[in-house]
């Protein structure tokens, strides 16, 4: 249960709460003893518990209920990102009044909140992260600016709709001049360049920036404002934005002499805007001696990468503080520079080499030398075999493995990975050869939270039953095109994994309405449900979706759905993004034509 749900239960416990009394067969402490116990002692008793457990404690007696309410005022950090329907305006208002002046960090899912309720935001917050802001306006940002203008240092925003404009963020930049970290992920209509320029102009201590589609001119403007970033995360979604190229690296190195984290992602088609050559990487090696995180992801279709292995080896030999490295889609990156990275950077925690021509030799060395490694991604590496992937089972410390579209994945590989890394929380594979034996091995990893297995036609309902019995903490699962799965297996999954947030079952043609009903009724935190090309779904599925309080994105197969059903659901849930076989529901005329 999320903290908000727990808080709501604390707030609404009836005055006739049960008083614990002693009996001949129990050793419960009488309520009178608790009454005489100092509050400080009770707070120390509650401190080791997770805040979500306070609601249960609060139901024991009125004394413990009062202690739990007092405990809320001692919190310095509160995570409400997964609160779901429990976090409504009433709950947030009461909770805000009880949190106290010690709260410094707050993370909130605003999906079920109105814009006006943030006028109750506790003052003194230094770090604020807002997500689910898909139907809000600048009013919400105005309340943030008014309530936190004296204290706010770190601000993060995620929202992809509504009536929020650049002016709302510019207001925060003008009032919250102590900002050191600004992170924004918003809709394509947002003028992000204007926002970032306002932050650069008004926040002289800015050292961390996360944004997308910033132009080269915006970075030049930031340099004129004497912004000295230590951490930069930037994603290029379309042409015209800063490319991953030599020119970009040279610009960033010049304006950020103490760079600790550089994360550049290129999602756009290559448009000839620049190359990555030895010049860029060697300049990075020469100037960025403070680097701890370096992530460069070229566009998949890019032909711009022309750097040699020598440059990567030089980078590794100089940047010895690196703990997180990504060099994705570097087509010339083979084993020798990877050897250098592994040997020169003994504290590697995360390594991503997607789309590179590395071989089993790199994985063998990695397994024997990188004892701090927690995450490895080798997606799309075509020169790997079963032997190399099995070697990862020797790491013992891995929490995340992504080998999607990599060669060599078998049931034996999955068994070796899971037996050797029982703390695995994230596993991504895509291989038609995997069977229920793989799911049985994965079930040993009881902390598993994210699992993606695509196109595994040998997986059956029995394997799904075994998986759901072992991986009760699962939050994200994708079993697209596992076409032997039926409603029975999905019902077992929903029963065993009630914490599911995102489920993808595209192309599972045996699934029908009962699968949706089970997921909506048994998984209260479900936000994203994708069942593309599931042709047995009918209009009754919309009644099940109405019972899912946290659902935000739905993608359904269209075969038996009618326009009346689609339009009716949209009217009842206007903020839910509805897709039909991957197409936005707003394109009703095209859908009607296809039907």
Automatic annotation (TrEMBL):
<dbReference type="InterPro" id="IPR036047">
    <property type="entry name" value="F-box-like_dom_sf"/>
</dbReference>
<dbReference type="InterPro" id="IPR001810">
    <property type="entry name" value="F-box_dom"/>
</dbReference>
<feature type="domain" description="F-box">
    <location>
        <begin position="31"/>
        <end position="80"/>
    </location>
</feature>
<dbReference type="InterPro" id="IPR032675">
    <property type="entry name" value="LRR_dom_sf"/>
</dbReference>
<dbReference type="Pfam" id="PF25372">
    <property type="entry name" value="DUF7885"/>
</dbReference>
<dbReference type="InterPro" id="IPR006553">
    <property type="entry name" value="Leu-rich_rpt_Cys-con_subtyp"/>
</dbReference>
<protein>
    <recommendedName>
        <fullName>F-box domain-containing protein</fullName>
    </recommendedName>
</protein>
<dbReference type="InterPro" id="IPR057207">
    <property type="entry name" value="FBXL15_LRR"/>
</dbReference>
């Amino acid at each position: 249960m999320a903290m908000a749900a727990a808080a709501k239960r604390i707030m609404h416990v009836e005055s006739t709460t049960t008083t614990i009394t002693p009996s001949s067969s129990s050793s419960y402490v009488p309520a009178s003893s608790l009454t005489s116990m100092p509050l400080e002692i009770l707070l120390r008793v509650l401190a080791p518990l997770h805040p979500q457990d306070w609601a249960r404690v609060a139901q024991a007696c009125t004394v413990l209920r009062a202690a739990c309410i007092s405990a809320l005022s001692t919190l310095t950090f509160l995570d409400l990102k997964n609160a779901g329907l429990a976090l409504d305006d009433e709950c947030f208002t009461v909770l805000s009044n009880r949190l106290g002046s010690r709260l410094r960090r707050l993370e909130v899912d605003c999906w079920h909140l109105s814009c006006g309720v943030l006028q109750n935001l506790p003052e003194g917050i230094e770090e604020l992260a807002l997500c689910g802001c898909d139907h809000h306006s600048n009013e919400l940002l105005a309340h943030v600016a008014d309530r936190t203008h004296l204290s706010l240092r770190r601000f993060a925003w995620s929202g992809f709709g509504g009536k929020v404009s650049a002016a709302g963020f510019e207001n925060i930049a003008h009032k919250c001049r102590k900002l050191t970290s600004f992170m924004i992920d918003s809709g394509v209509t947002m003028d992000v360049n204007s926002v970032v320029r306002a932050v650069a102009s008004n926040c002289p201590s800015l050292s961390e920036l996360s944004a997308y589609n910033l132009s080269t001119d915006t970075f030049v403007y930031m340099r004129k404002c004497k912004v000295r970033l230590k951490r930069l995360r930037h994603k290029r979604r379309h042409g015209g934005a800063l490319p991953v190229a030599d020119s970009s690296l040279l610009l960033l190195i010049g304006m950020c002499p103490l760079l600790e984290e550089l994360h550049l992602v290129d999602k756009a088609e290559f448009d000839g805007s620049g190359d990555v050559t030895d010049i860029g990487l060697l300049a990075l090696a020469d100037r960025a001696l403070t680097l701890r995180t370096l992530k460069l992801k070229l566009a998949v279709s890019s032909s711009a990468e022309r750097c040699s292995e020598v440059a990567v080896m030089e980078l590794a030999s100089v940047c010895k503080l690196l703990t997180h490295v990504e060099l994705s889609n570097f087509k010339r990156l083979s084993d020798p520079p990877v050897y250098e990275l592994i040997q020169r950077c003994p504290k590697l925690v995360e390594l991503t080499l997607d789309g590179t021509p590395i071989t089993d030799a790199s994985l063998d060395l990695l397994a024997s030398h990188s004892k701090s490694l927690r995450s490895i991604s080798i997606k799309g590496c075509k020169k790997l075999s079963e032997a190399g992937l099995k070697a990862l089972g020797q790491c013992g410390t891995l929490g995340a493995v992504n080998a999607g579209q990599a060669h060599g994945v078998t049931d034996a590989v999955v068994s070796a990975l899971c037996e050797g890394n029982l703390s695995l929380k994230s596993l991504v594979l895509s291989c038609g050869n995997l069977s229920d034996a793989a799911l049985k091995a994965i079930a040993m990893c009881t902390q598993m939270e994210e699992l993606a297995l695509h196109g595994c036609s040998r997986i059956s309902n029995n394997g799904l039953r075994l998986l759901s019995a072992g991986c009760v903490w699962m939050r994200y699962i994708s079993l697209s095109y596992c076409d032997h799965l039926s409603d029975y297996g999905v019902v077992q999954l929903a029963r065993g994994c009630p914490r599911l947030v995102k489920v993808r079952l595209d192309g599972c043609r045996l699934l029908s309405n009962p699968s949706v009903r089970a997921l909506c009724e048994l998984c209260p935190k479900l936000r994203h449900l994708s069942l593309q090309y599931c042709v047995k779904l009918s209009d009754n599925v919309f009644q099940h979706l109405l019972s899912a309080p946290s659902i935000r994105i739905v993608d359904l197969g269209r075969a038996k759905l009618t326009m009346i059903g689609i339009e009716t659901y949209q009217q009842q849930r206007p903020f839910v993004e509805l897709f039909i076989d991957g197409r936005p529901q707003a394109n009703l005329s095209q859908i009607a034509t296809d039907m």
